[in-house]
Amino acid sequence: MKIDGTPYRSIWVDETDGWSVRIIDQTKLPWSVDLVRLTTLEEMAHAIKAMLVRGAPLIGASAAYGVALAMRTDASDAALAQALDVLGTTRPTAINLRWALQRMGELLQKLEPSARIGAAYAEAAKICDEDVAVNEAIGRNGLALIQEKAKTGKRVNVLTHCNAGWIATVDWGTALAPIYMAHDSGVNVHVWVEETRPRNQGASLTAWELSKHGVPHTVIADNAGGHYMQHGEVDLVIVGTDRVTRQGDVCNKIGTYLKALAARDNGVPFWVALPSSTVDWTIRDGVSEIPIEERAASEVTTMTGRAMDGSIATVRIVPTSSPAANPAFDVTPARLVTGLITERGLCDATEAALTEMFSDLA
């Protein structure tokens, strides 16, 4: 995708040295586009944990490059085991992290240390290229849903929560990929962008992405989504996900569950876009089995934005005497999900449908 006319991926190997890794620091968006150079395992682990990179697919790709950086320093068995452990503890909820590390580990453990550096970089690049192709396929499959709504001749209003666009993946995105394709094909599509407290990924990231691509959109408060559904101003909801169980339960940014409830009450289709790598085949019950990351209370008690004088400032919005809790994700039960948009097509959020579509993985 493009930023002011220049095409970017969200992660790439620095072309000047051929080994360090470049990312877009998403904590600085939308106020500035900072390209950060990462050179060590520790720097990559920090980038993932501190959410300089975020979004399940991008977390997996970043972890793969983290292993490659580690192998460049020390390609021994002990160093490989340490790299997999360090990266594996950065974000507990996104299953793509575990998927990518398992893939890297299985490949590199079979090789002699002398062969691991080149193999690690090649596999990380392969993971990134596959992610782009997968997300493009998700976009094509989801496009049909928007085109069907467009047959009325009216504007198609899509509501999304959090950020599942190209900066949450290597390119294209999951939930936003069908929207980009609809816009590019001439469909009159408009996006309701929920702000997504507490980190405001909708207001800061999704709105920034859509602005850069020229997609019509409106930022709304998280609690406004149900209101627009009640008044017939939401045609469908499309969200991303960090983990889907084999029976179709969906774990996504906190607040997604409430959107699914409102959508069900108002007869609005609720679709979830995901690559097959986001399916966790080892668990069924998302509510009881998916670990929910508890992040710092400061994300709830403070907000960062641009002051009237143009400076970037962080201010506290909660009384100093009040504590805060900050679960980063919630789980939407499969019964509330209209269907899943995957790289292989659309399917019901059921174990039977998932197993049939991904029989080679299940």
From TrEMBL:
According to its UniProt record, in which pathway does this protein act? Amino-acid biosynthesis; L-methionine biosynthesis via salvage pathway; L-methionine from S-methyl-5-thio-alpha-D-ribose 1-phosphate: step 1/6
Task: Give the family this protein belongs to, as stated in its UniProt record.
Answer: Belongs to the EIF-2B alpha/beta/delta subunits family. MtnA subfamily.
Example of a GO biological process term? L-methionine salvage from methylthioadenosine
Where, in this chain's numbering, is substrate bound? R54, G55, A56, R91, Q201, N252, K253
Keyword field contains Amino-acid biosynthesis: yes
Could you cite one Gene Ontology molecular function of this protein? S-methyl-5-thioribose-1-phosphate isomerase activity
Catalytic activity reads: 5-(methylsulfanyl)-alpha-D-ribose 1-phosphate = 5-(methylsulfanyl)-D-ribulose 1-phosphate; 5-deoxy-alpha-D-ribose 1-phosphate = 5-deoxy-D-ribulose 1-phosphate
Natural source organism: Acidocella aminolytica 101 = DSM 11237
Q: Name the top EC class.
A: isomerase
Which controlled-vocabulary keywords does the entry list? Amino-acid biosynthesis, Isomerase, Methionine biosynthesis
Q: Where is the active site?
A: D242 (proton donor)
The molecule here is called: Methylthioribose-1-phosphate isomerase
The top of its lineage is:
Bacteria, Pseudomonadati, Pseudomonadota, Alphaproteobacteria, Acetobacterales
Listed InterPro entries: IF-2B-related, IF-M1Pi, IF_2B-like_C, Initiation_fac_2B_a/b/d, M1Pi_N, NagB/RpiA_transferase-like
Function per UniProt: Catalyzes the interconversion of methylthioribose-1-phosphate (MTR-1-P) into methylthioribulose-1-phosphate (MTRu-1-P). Also catalyzes the interconversion of 5-deoxyribose 1-phosphate and 5-deoxyribulose 1-phosphate. Part of a bifunctional DHAP-shunt salvage pathway for SAM by-products.
EC number of the protein? 5.3.1.23
The UniProt entry, under Pfam families, shows: IF-2B
Q: Where is this site: Transition state stabilizer?
A: C162
